Every structure is written in C-alpha cells, then in structure tokens.
Amino acid sequence: MHSALLAIDLFLVIEKLVLIVGIVSISLVIAMYETYAERKVAAFIQDRRGPNRAGPFGILQPLADGLKLFMKEEIIPNTSNRFLFILGPCLAMLAAMMTSAVIPWGGTLNVFGREVNLQIADINIGILYVFGVVSMGVYGIMIGGWASNNKFSLMAALRGASQVISYELPMGLSLIALLMLTGSLKMSEIVGQQLDSWYNVLYQPLGFFIFLVCAFAECNRTPFDLPEAENELNFGYHQEYSSMKLGFYLFAEYINMFISSVVMVTLFWGGYDIPFINDTSLSGMGNWLVLLQGLSLFIKVAIFIFVFMWVRWTIPRFRYDQLMNLGWKGLIPLSLVNMVVTAAIVLLKANGWKF
Amino acid sequence: MQALTSRAKAVDRRPMTFVEKLYMWNILKGMMITLRHLFKKKATISYPEQKRPFSPVFRGLHILNRDEEGRERCTACGLCALACPAEAITMEAAERLPGEEHLYREEKYAAKYEINMLRCIFCGLCEEACPKDAVYLSETFAPSNYQRKGFIYGKQDLLIPNPKENPGEYWKAVGNRKANKEQSN
What we know:
The complex is a heterodimer of chains A (355) and B (185). Chain A has helices at residues 2-6, 10-45, 61-71, 82-98, 126-147, 151-182, 187-195, 200-203, 205-218, 230-233, 243-268, 287-312, 320-350; strands at 108-111, 114-117. With 355 residues, chain A is an all-alpha fold. In chain A, strands 1-2 form a two-stranded antiparallel sheet. In chain A, a hairpin with a 2-residue loop joins strand 1 and strand 2. Chain A is globular. With 185 residues, chain B is α+β, with helices and mostly antiparallel strands. Chain B has a domain at 62-184: Alpha-Beta Plaits. Chain B has helices at 18-21, 24-38, 79-83, 125-129, 155-158, 167-184, and strands spanning 62-64, 89-95, 108-116, 135-137, 152-153. Chain B has a three-stranded antiparallel sheet. Chain B has a two-stranded antiparallel sheet with strand order 1-4. Chain B is elongated. Chain A binds chain B through residues 41, 44-49, 52, 310-311, 313-315, 330, and chain B through 21-22, 27, 30-31, 33-35, 37-38, 40, 42-44, 46.
C-alpha cells in the first residue's frame, strides 16, 4: 500500500505545474490589462480618450504603470508593525491568486495521448473552497490597515471587514438556492450540468442578481468601495503603502474582480459552454473545441469585467449605514425568500408535483 | 410663504416606496446614460498630432523680419520699445560698417534685440509702431521652459531664416497671418 501511495505520477506533477504557471500568468496579464481597460472605460464614459500615448492605443500603459510602481521609493512608517505591514499585501495577493485553482477553465485537452483536465484541482467542495479563500482576502485589508498604525487606515480596515462579512451572508444564501438545484458543490459538475441544458441564471435570476451585487461588495468596487473611499479616508487601508506594496493591493483588487467574474460565469452562465451551440455535436473537433470553449469562457468573463467597470463609473458610493441597510435589510431577506421558494419547488418537483 | 419666482417647485419629501428603496430602476437609468456616453464623439483634440486652427487674428511669438535680399529690416529706432505697454522690448543700436551692406538694410541696426516673453502681453502694438515692417507677430506661442531666462528671446531666436539661403524655412516662418495681411493690403 505504501508503495502505491509513494508512486507519484511524474507526468501529473508536470502537467499540474504547467497549468498552475499558465493560469497564474494569465490572471496576472488579465489583471494588468484590466487596469488599462478600466482607464479606457472610465475615459469613454466621461467623454475622454484615456491612455493612448504608450504604444499603439496605449496598450503598453500597464507596463509603464508597473515600472513606475517598481521604481518608487519603498516607505515603511516608523510606528508601523513591520512584519504585519509587509504581510498585508502578500496576503491580499495570495488570497486573490489561490481562488483560480478550482475553476474549470475548459474541457479535457488531449496532449500526446494524455488526457489533460484544464482544472488545477477538481475537488468535490470547489465552491466552498472559493468562499473560504475569498473570505481570507479580507485579512489582507485588515492586517494592512492595522499595521499602518494610522487612524484612517484602521477605520478603513474596520469598514472593509464588516462589509465583507455582511455581504458574504447573502452571497452564501443565494448560492445555497443554486446548490439545491445542482445538487453538487463540485465546480466541474455545475458546469457539466449546464453544458447540455439551460444556464443556471434562467432558474435563479434573483439568486444571480444578489450574487452579482455581493460580488461588487466583496471586491470593494464602487458602489461599495468604502474601505478605500478617497475623499473620506484619504485612500483608506493602503494610505501608508508605497511602491509595489501598494501595487500588490491594487493588483489584488483587479485579480479579485477577474476571479469573481469567472466564478459568476461558471456558476450561473454555463462556464466554458459555447452559447446557442450544442457543444457535444462539435466533439469531433477535439482540442480545437476545448480551445473554443476556453475562448467563450474568456469572452463571457470580459463582458462581466466590463459590467464591473460600467457600474463603477456610474453609481456613486453608498454611505456606511446605507450599505449595512442594503446588506442586512435588503439582500439577506431577499436571498432567504429566494432560498425558501427554490427549496419548495425542488421538493415539489421531487414529489412529482403533488402537494 | 410666497414663492420668489414662478418657477419654484416644492421638494418632494414623501418617504420612498419599497421599489424606490431598491434603487434598481434609477440605477438602470444611470447605467443607460453612461452606456450612451461610451459611444459619443470625444471632444478631445490629440494635441501634438492634431492642432486646433488658430484664428486669423491670433497674435503669437514675434518675428524679426528680413527683406527680399535677406537683409535685416530693423534699424533700432526704438519705436516698438516705446509703444510696448508691458516694457518687454530692449535693444542696443549699432552703426553699419562698410562691407556689411548685405547684412543690414539701413545704416543703423540692432546689435541686441531682446523681448521678454514673460512680460509680453501679445498686444501687437510693436507691430503697429514699426515703420520698417521689421517686427510682426506670428501664430506660434512661447513654448515651455525650465528657467525664467529662457523666456528672454534674443535676436537669434526672433530673426526669420534668410530667404535667399533657406527659402523653405523662410516661407514656413512667414506663416499665414503675415501672408493674409499682405493679401488684404
């Protein structure tokens, strides 16, 4: 038995390592270009042109921004807790990157006769893992705000913590309704069910909407960007940060945005399924189909990222009490109702529609 | 209380209904407005590649003129400095020596001619005062500079290129304003 456990499939290790490196670098590049897209979208919404000097159409702008952040002086305040101060951005970045492990990025690729699953870890509690890691992300904000030893940063950290905790509740509740329909926590199975039937958003429109609003709150994006409210807290929890440590915080926010778009697409919009086309009829295409499916996933994600930005540049920030009212008095009751109704329907259906 | 104007409207202070409290309809309306702005034509002019045309009466940097044979027209009479309300012009006169006839048109010329572009208000009175058509204002404005002394323009900055040696540059420097003016005369 021991020998069976120790017999590590070397190819599996290599395959997973390649996948991890690939997915991490893809998310980093996407986060980079999200900053560019954000500036462009903001500019276009405000009737401006946006960055267009670095390279054609300004596509080298994220590189220039990154270089600028790297070249800046690194300042650690005297009165801060040095260890925690450095730990903060690391945690934010780590939590942001870790979520991508359980996302099914596509079907099964056939490489030299080997079946390669485009999912790093197909664990049976996939969505719970996502929730666990995402809620760890708030430690980045809290530790950063606390370690800065600055009243504004501390206040922002408190706000961030309470906001994320409050909005995780309706998010989880709206998800329970979805999980009752799918009957599985496994991400690959949730996508698999949507591949040859309707998308989950048709069964759970309210659940999806609540999930979307909560995702905005979890990512600390504008209507809910209280932790970094510039005009109230002068930049909030990353006020004392400079150079790439600040860059990591900003980067983590964009990666979070990407990952939450991916999670939403996976759960509600059919993941890597190509819309309006029966994917199984195309199975003769082999690897090309898998690549097309990956592309369709990324197109859906891009649409969601655009929605994130569109909302950010449209809606002004909530006040703190409004935020809490919306979360506790609006979204939680709504998601509870959604859950109860879904549960009743699922039960009725299981009984053959007999009362 | 009587309203001050007929346009005054009472503020609606009714408590919000449940639907209004969800903000959904208003948020959707706002999103549609921003979506429309995405496709609007931008008012921006991409400056270095694309320049906004100047008005025909725009008065910019000064030019010290030469005649057709490339001789400086200025005789350092000082009328421009006298006319200048901002006292931006200073000059030093010198006498033309034998053998310098191809350089200066009259017997007297300006050895030093300086305009302080920080003082200048670009009113164009120097151009009007000049009896020799030696100084006029072009369509360019003073470029930025790191130091104050960089804004004091000497003769080498102001003098137009020689039409005989360098006709291309000369006609570029003459500019539309001067050309238009001569046409109307």
